[in-house]
Amino acid sequence: MVYASVYMAHDITCPPPKVNEVVEYCNTNRLPLVVGGDANAHHTLWGSSDINERGIQLLEFIVEQDLHCINKGHKPNFVTSNTKERLDVTLVSNDLITKVSFWKVLDTESMSDHKFIQFGLRIGRPDPIYYRNRRKTMWS
What we know:
With 140 residues, this protein is an alpha+beta fold. The protein has a single domain (2-136), classed as Deoxyribonuclease I, Chain A (4-Layer Sandwich). Helix content is 17%, strand content 26%. The protein contains 2 helices and 8 strands; from the N terminus they run βαβαββββββ. The chain has helices spanning 17-28, 53-64; strands spanning 2-7, 33-38, 67-69, 78-79, 84-85, 88-93, 100-105, 117-121. Strands 1-2-6-3 form a 4-stranded mixed beta sheet, covered by helices on one side. A two-stranded antiparallel sheet has the order 4-5. The N and C termini lie far apart (42 Å).
């Protein structure tokens, strides 16, 4: 499983090339993926009050890559003296969407203008991989 924490600066393309690389790596190697980060993008899909061009670009990427936004509710996760908005997104790959148990913005002080986000995944032990060790085979 791959966990990626991402900052998507407002002055570069959305999503940044490194995010594309991580998603491609996970798709190629069939690895589950969790991406969390500051998207600096507005879209009602993740609870923003409006939609901007960056939000449209990010949504197109999410759909193209078969990712899912697991943001829930309408509590702002970015709060300043004059702004309350939902700019942080949490994305999971298709194979994890049924394993998400909750997602929420915490009230705990983070010493930042971004709030802590907590989510849960129900993940058990991986299935065993069975193989034959030919060196231990009794050929007789």
